[in-house]
Each structure stands twice: as structure tokens, then as C-alpha cells.
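Practice record 12: protein with flavin mononucleotide.
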Amino acid sequence: MNALPPLAASATLFEPLTLRSVTLRNRIVLAPMAQYSAEDGMANDWHFVHYASRAAGGLGAVVVEVTAVSPQGRICPGELGLWQDGQIAPLARLTALIAAQGAVPGIQIGHAGRKACTAQPWEGGAAVPLDRGGWIPLGPGTEPFGPAYHAPRALTHAELEALPGVFAAAARRAHRAGFRLLELHAAHGYLIHQFLSPLVNRRTDGHGGAFENRTRLALEVTRAVRAAWPAELPLWVRLSVTDWAAGGWDVEEAVRLAGLLRDEGVDLVDSSSGGVVAHQRVPAAPGFQVPFAGRIRREAGVRTGAVGLITEPAQADAILRAGQADVVLLGRVMLRDPYWPLHAAQVLGVEGPWPVQYLRGAPGTV
Ligand SMILES: Cc1cc2nc3c(=O)[nH]c(=O)nc-3n(C[C@H](O)[C@H](O)[C@H](O)COP(=O)(O)O)c2cc1C
């Protein structure tokens, strides 16, 4: 591995973090959360309101929801996309809004693989029929995720060879849209994770079997994206650190991959889990994935993000002070409370990043 400066032993929630040329004003990051509300992959008024209001709530960075690198790679027809240049302009408006509120605009790019082509969760989430705008998803093999999903078509060798270029093209468009942080989605049972997991990847070619083969797609995509994404901007990768199922991808393999990703120029591993098989058993509890971020940070020597049921300011601050992660990513709690960072600052007794327009409502002013 390349020699890198040692990671800081600890930080606090409202301490800035500099990654390459980008500084987050604090360590609180909006976790990518699909809104399932785009048309033809284009951001619209819902996205502007949703992301701008959360940026105004004082976040260090916003990671915009998973955005498809190709139309077949959409989880649902309403997913954002970056597979064509026409999708850049509305996202550029979004990055300007987020940056104007003092948060770093980031975006997650991904491909859903065999879990593509499902209805919005509030419509039940089952496969969209082919005669109602659906399509046949692509996967490592032909086994569906479950009975409510389409059976995928197995990716050919030529298609696999083309995929890193497809991700790289989306990364270039993300840069043109003004994003300053890019996250590659390699978690939650979507395409890259499907290749990592021996429970899904049963290929017998150079992309299946041994660790080196199962991680090939992840590493080739990372290499292509790192080359396409400006050297002065940070690249994150989201991993599922375990499949929570016997015989699956696990923390030992994830630590090993995290070290290789670090060597490819990945700046932070966002440490999540699960999603690749329906029979997983997830022991969800407050902060249950935090130990994964800690272990990857310690053993792979790469910065990490902790995510999953982090809801309390003192809990978030303690994760950073213990050196288990470099940032916390907050999901559902930010849907309930867009101003969580401002409230957390008040609870922790530090000055909050209040928008000037809202100063008359800040604590101590009435
Ligand atoms: C509505 C919703 C949409 C989500 N979409 C994504 C996504 O686009 N990409 C992703 O990596 N995770 C996605 N997630 C997972 C979150 O990023 C996060 O990892 C998860 O919700 C656990 O964090 P929390 O307990 O703070 O919510 C989504 C979660 C929710 C609730």
C-alpha cells in the first residue's frame, strides 16, 4: 500500500474536514436517499426543495441520492440519471442551491443490476411490467432477487468490459453539473455488490469465484471513475461490509477491498451493510454498523463514514471522538428533521451554522 499520512485519532462533530481540495464545514453528511421522483432521470422541483432545505439545515455535505449511470441500471423509473448530457442542467441548479447554503454538493452514482426496474416503495415496490414501461434488468447471472422481481439477463463479457467507461462518463457529467464529491454505490445488493457477493455471483469466468475475480468489477469501475473525476476532488465508495447471511461477503473481505480501494485513490469508505439477498438477518439497532466503519478505518487505513440509526447528537459526536469514523451520514432522521445539524449544535453547546436569513430564529435571539 502507498504511504499515506496517519489518520487523525479523533474529531468532533462540528470540526471541519478537508479531503483533497474540498472542506466540509462539519462532519454531518446527508446519506444518499432515493426520492423516486424524477422523470427521464431529470431532477425537478421536488429535488430542489428537498435538498436545498436540508443544506440550509447546516450539513457539511449533501450526498444526492443514487443516480443511474444507464437507463437499465435504474432501481425504479423515477430514479435520477446521468446517462445523457441533458440531465446535467437541472442537477447544476441543484448543486448551486446546495453550495449557496454552505454544504458541499455530492452525488452517488450506481447501477441497480438485478434489483432494477421496481415500482416506487409507496406503490408496493414490485417489478414494473414490461408493457408498463419496464425492462429486463442485467445481473451477474439469471437468478432474480426474489419472486416480486424480474429475472435478470446475465451480463456478457463485452458488456462488463464497457461498464467502467459507462460509470466514468456519468462521473464526468457529475463534475460538469458542479458536484464536488462523488460516491460510488457498491453496496445494498446493487450491481457492484452483486459481483462481490458469492451468494449472488456464481460466474465461472474472470469475474466469479476467487476474491480477485469478484472484486474485479468494483476495482475496474473505481479506477475508471478515479481517472475521470478530477484529482483535486474526493471520491467515496459505499460498501456493504457484510451480507448478514451465511456464506456471504463479510467484514474480512470488505477490509481487504477497502485497502485496495484506498490504493486506487478512494478517500473514504462509507460503511453500510446488507441488501444482496432476501434471506438476510439484519440486527438493526442504534449505531449497529458503526463497528464496521471503525474496523475498516483501523485495519485498512482509510477514512470512513458511519451510517445507520445514528440519530442523537451525543451519539454522533462520540463516534467521531472514538476515532471510529471521519464523518457520520444521517438518513431517516434528516427526513424527520431537516434542521438536525442546527438542533445538534444547540444540544452540544456549539455555535450552529445558521443561514443568515434565519438568524432571528437562532437560539438566544428571542
Ligand atoms: C427513503 C430512503 C432512500 C434511500 N436511498 C438510498 C440510496 O439512494 N443510496 C444508498 O446508498 N442508500 C440509500 N438509502 C439508505 C440510507 O442511505 C441509509 O444508509 C439508511 O437509511 C440507514 O441510515 P439511517 O438509519 O440514518 O436512515 C435509503 C434510505 C431511505 C430511508
